[in-house]
Amino acid sequence: MFESQSPSAPPPEQSTRERLETVLYELRRVIVGQDRLLDRIIVSLLSRGHVLLEGVPGLAKTLTLETVAKVAGGDFARIQFTPDLVPSDVVGGQVLDRSGDFRTRLGPVFANFVLADEINRAPAKVQSALLEVMAEGHASIAGETHPVPKPFFVLATQNPVESEGVYALPEAQLDRFAMKLIVDYPSREDEEEIVRRMASSPPEVRQLLTPDDLIALQEMADSVFVDHRVRAYAVHLVTATRSPGSEGLGHLAPYLDLGGSPRASISMIRGAKALAVMRGRNYILPEDVHNLYLDCLRHRVILSYEALAADVKPDQVLEAILEAIPQPQVELGTGRSVA
Questions:
Q1: How many CB atoms lie within 10 A of CB 57?
Q2: b (16+ CB within 10 A) / e for 208-231
Q3: CA distance 259 to 241
Q4: Mean predicted confidence (pLDDT) in 248-276
């Protein structure tokens, strides 16, 4: 279908939804059985958010972002976080050249797609250096400000099964990530397919987008309409994590030490806008917010010792809140769609 087309130029008859579905299909040629992960990464890309990915080694976390970068046509950089890393290893610094002058060397964070592998293996000052760039979109080196390229997307990974030699991310830094995604083992059928594809010659993906295309898609997501009832629903879901008793969920109060911040509400609305674009709409629905709730909140709520002692997980608390608060009835024009 695409033989006569430029790799970055889809057929003119494709809608935005079809184009993004083509991108997802291309990613699935390499990444097997992680449809939700790929979907949420595209949502985060379009909403200018960053993702924290939690999973044991060997689940293709590195391969996933590398494949996204190939399909989107951006620069890819991988930073392996270790205890001996220093901030200049991430953002760069000044080096002395052969002429005896100092020049600025930009670090690997100055790329479109940055994989921060095992971010919890580096000390807090290194984590903070990365998270500052994520929040501000630039880094200061020797008094000069250097902006990161656009689009800019960080995927940070952490291993949940090891406790030695790790530096847990503080809650305030976790809040910088738009979403936290959990990657589990593939099913037996999916693993058989992974072995079949990778045991010989791994499939090569095509570049279907350019960085400029991604920026245009981000701007399209920015313009998506948000009904005030949907906005209120998102805020309602977040404030319920701070005072569950006011929602008739007093039994959850002992399990929650701290609820989600306003960043959670912002992340949900921004993500819902991107999800609407992917679904061919120029307005969001309550179900878009509903679908992103766990991903946007699971790393933002802090459970009490009582919850930890009872082996209560954040998702269990959040699912109870999600079930208790009904979605508002919002009917928008069925004929409105994204071109």
A1: 12
A2: bbbbebbeebbebbeebebbeebb
A3: 5
A4: 93
